[in-house]
Amino acid sequence: MVTHDPASEALSALQHPVKIRTENVNLFYGDVHALKDVTIDVPLHAVTVFFGPAGGGKTTMLRLINRLNDLVDNIRMSGHIWVDGDDIYAPGTQVAALRRRIGMVFALPLPLPGTIRSNVVYGPKLAGIRQASRLDELVESSLRQAALWDEVKDRLDTPANQLSGGQQQRLCIARSLALEPEILLLDEPTSGLDPVSTAKVEASLLELKKRYTIIIVPHNVQQGARIADYAGFFLMGELIEKGDGREVFNRPQNSHTEDYVTGRFG
Amino acid sequence: MLRVAFHAELNRLQADVAQLGMMVKTAIRKAVVALQDRNLDAAREVLADDQLINDKRFRLEHDILVLIATQQPLASDLRNLAAMLEIITELERMGDYGKGISKINLMLGQQYLIKPLVDIPKMADIALDMLASSLEAFAALDVEAAKRIPLMDDQVDELYNQVYRDLIERVIKNPDHMEQANMLMWVAHNLERAGDRAVNICERIIFVVEGRMTEFDAGHAAQPPSGSN
After folding, report:
1. In whole angstroms, how far apart are CA A237 and each of A24, A37, A56, A187, A230?
2. I need a labelling partner for A177 at 20 to 30 A (CA). Which of A242, B65, B164, B190 fits?
3. How far apart are the first and last CA of chain B?
4. Torsions phi, psi of A180, nearest 5?
5. pLDDT tens across B13-50, in order?
6. Domain that holds residue B194
């Protein structure tokens, strides 16, 4: 009897160095225990997928990595989150500087009022970049990386709200990239997009992961399965299963994960 | 996202695969009994009914592909559908063995058999038992049964070798029996392959449940007539 197991023979994102490490992260919204002892290593230059049913804690986890929950009232957190070995919740952490390193894109594309160009240069200008040629460079490189450049290069000074939904979302990705972050956090970035725009965003993610560490909450499990190098399944605040993306989506070890990816609950 | 309609369709396909398997089992059984009884009408019926098997196989293949395309299943559901695609191919080819045996029956026409058929019906019994058991194991996704059934293939192979030796002896004694011996050897070969294909079905069951491809030993059957001198 011979056993063939090509999936486990494939290269794993686990072999990448760790970019983000969370250790025993707990979060309470008032009495609600929203995250329970979440420990996960997010690999460098790979797409990590956080998935699971609504209310499982995946978006909360994403927001903690960007310290977006800092301003939420009645919140209590314990545990650690390290980025490149630095505890981002250590006293004295420069939150603005941290967020510049960690871009975030939300489910609904929210372009700023103004032109396509002004959307992209908004962040770099706030960060003190004034040189026109440098800003032009950032506009082109960011829009190219977000796979939008070819569609808008001849109309950079038209209002951003004239773009289609898919283009607006890619503009929001470009806006994050203009700050030249190291990490991109994407919370269901294609949930409002048509299949063609979704495919373009997914294709751009596969390019972007060569330079950025990406964590994404996908809008369905199929999308997660398509793009995940590494994956974590969140259920009721717990990280139930984590591992190589192909394994977690195609051969989950935990029965809850199996039931969720095959649509038996959720 | 709950997928009630998807799982209902998955169950329907699984039942249809089992039904296809039963049609194949009936075809092979009928072909072997018709050969024993020298019943040429029954042999013709098996030939005609093979079209029904082929039609059902292609209809299933279409439905499985539509379900994959429209529902994008993952994990064990995807493996189940991929396994069904393989299993229906195995079943359709097994149906062809029934057809092949019937064709040989018709080619023999009114000839008397050079030997009473003893080992060949035994081979059919075991191979068809393997087929029925593997279909039950697939319906229940019973890995233990799927690992046990292939052990039966050794008996089929042993009987095949017995038929081979027996026919060779008869041909040595009477070279005029060469042509019919060759045909009967093909009947035995078809049944031996039917056993192998039941083993393939078992390998797919293990794949569905465990996510790993397991290959059982291909057995120790002698070469088919075309490969022997």
Report:
1. 12, 9, 5, 17, 19
2. A242
3. 62
4. 50, 60
5. 999 999 999 999 999 999 999 999 999 999 999 999 99
6. 4-227
The per-residue pLDDT for range B48-106, each reduced to its tens digit, is 999 999 999 999 999 999 999 989 999 999 999 999 999 999 999 999 999 999 999 99
Q: Is the ipTM of this complex over 0.85?
A: no
The pLDDT value given to residue B176: 95
Q: Report yes or no: B77 at the A interface, CB cutoff 8 Å.
A: yes
**A228-250: pLDDT as tens digits:** 999 999 999 999 999 999 899 98
- Cβ pair A253, A234 in contact under 8 A: no
Q: Which residue of A has its CA nearest to B78?
A: A250
Between positions 118 and 177 of B, the ones with CB within 8 A of A are none
Of A4, A220, A250, Cβ closest to residue B75 = A250
Query: Which residue in A261, A243, A101, A72 sits closest to A185, CA to CA?
Result: A101
User: Alpha helix (H) ranges present in A111-220?
Assistant: 116-126, 132-145, 149-152, 165-177, 195-208
Confidence of residue B227 (pLDDT cuts 50, 70, 90): very low
Taking only residues 197 to 226 of chain B, the set having a beta carbon closer than 8 angstroms to any beta carbon of chain A reads 211-217
Looking up residue B33, the CATH number of its domain turns out to be 1.20.58.220
Cβ <8 Å between B6 and A249: no
CB-based burial label for A100 (10 Å; 0-12, 13-18, 19+): middle
Q: Distance (Å) from the C-alpha of residue B2 to the closest C-alpha of chain A?
A: 5
Strands A32-43 and A18-29: antiparallel
Tell which residue, A245, A242, A100, has the closest CA to residue A183. Answer: A100
Neighbours of B226 (CB within 10 A): 9
Q: How many domains does chain B divide into?
A: 1
Give the chain B residue whose CA is nearest to the CA of A4.
B213
Distance CA B229, CA B224 (A): 10
Measured between beta carbons, the chain A residues lying within 8 angstroms of B74 are: 221-222, 225, 249-250, 261-262
- Helix, strand and coil percent figures for chain B, each rounded to 5: 85, 0, 15
How far apart are alpha carbons B35 and B50 in whole angstroms? 17
* Domains of chain A with CATH codes: 6-261 (3.40.50.300)
Contact across the interface for B213 and A3, Cβ inside 8 Å: yes
Q: Considering Cα of B105, then B109, then B114, then B118, what sign does the dihedral take?
A: positive
